[in-house]
Amino acid sequence: MSLSNNYNTLSVTVDNKIAHITLNRPDAFNSMNLDFWQDFPAVINEINDQAAARVIVISSTGKHFCAGMDLAVFTENKSNEHTEIARKHEQLRRSVLKLQACFNVLEAARMPVLMAIQGGCIGGAVDMISAADCRYCTKDAFFSIEETKLGMTADLGTLQRLPKLISMGLVKELAYTGRRMPADEAKAAGLVNHVYENQAAMLDAVMAVAADIAARSPLAVSGCKEMINYARDHCVSDSLDYIALWQSGMFQPQNDMMETFKAKAQNRAPEFDELTQLDPSSIF
């Protein structure tokens, strides 16, 4: 499965059913410029629609993982200076929703998304990693809800998703103060799964986790992601009802489960069908 790779701010490779996306503007600390907001959702959607991989790993280059929103994004559009005030504000709301959608794709993707974070993870980068399934970091990593220092409120998902990942009191402290949360505190709080000595060690470990995920039934893993995210946002009884409904259609033991048993009996790795490709031009 080949991907377009016509991206200005990142690169992507697919190997052994693992898609590895790398932010590659190290000289700008991988800040999120205008091109990023086009590239990022496009590559996630491309992988998802093509079922090009069973797991996505996102890492970056240089000293810092990502310095957040490039300030040029705030000053780029001057075309609405003479727009009537109510319509100007309605346009701003739609702009924020459009930016939010760029990170919502991480939750919507059928395959898990793993983040490998080194150095600074600042502002919009916290919005991004909060939408991923798992986070890993180096010992020099730090996390900062930087927007408060700029006189604004974070609006792309941090304040909505972080309270589901770490304690509410800690989220409020980080948001109110804008202070940096170091790697060891992030691990203790449950934001990251593991902390590694350096980026090379982190990537080796994260790729090993990704390989374990890629070895499982992609339909079963996708079901886990769907159910866990649903349970996060719903009560237990509704979530139990949803998994019962899911199983009534998705659980076909003669397929992936039988293949697992056969592979074990034959001392080989199981071979599962991939998820189906999604054709955006078709409703079926």
Automatic annotation (TrEMBL):
NCBIfam families reported in the protein's UniProt record: PRK06142.1
SUPFAM superfamilies named among the record's database cross-references: ClpP/crotonase (SSF52096)
Pfam families linked to this entry: ECH_1 (PF00378)
Organism: Shewanella youngdeokensis
Domain of life: Bacteria
Family as reported in the entry's similarity comment: Belongs to the enoyl-CoA hydratase/isomerase family.
Xref: InterPro entries: ClpP/crotonase-like_dom_sf, Ech1-like, Enoyl-CoA_hydra/iso, Enoyl-CoA_hydra_C
Name recorded for this polypeptide: Crotonase/enoyl-CoA hydratase family protein
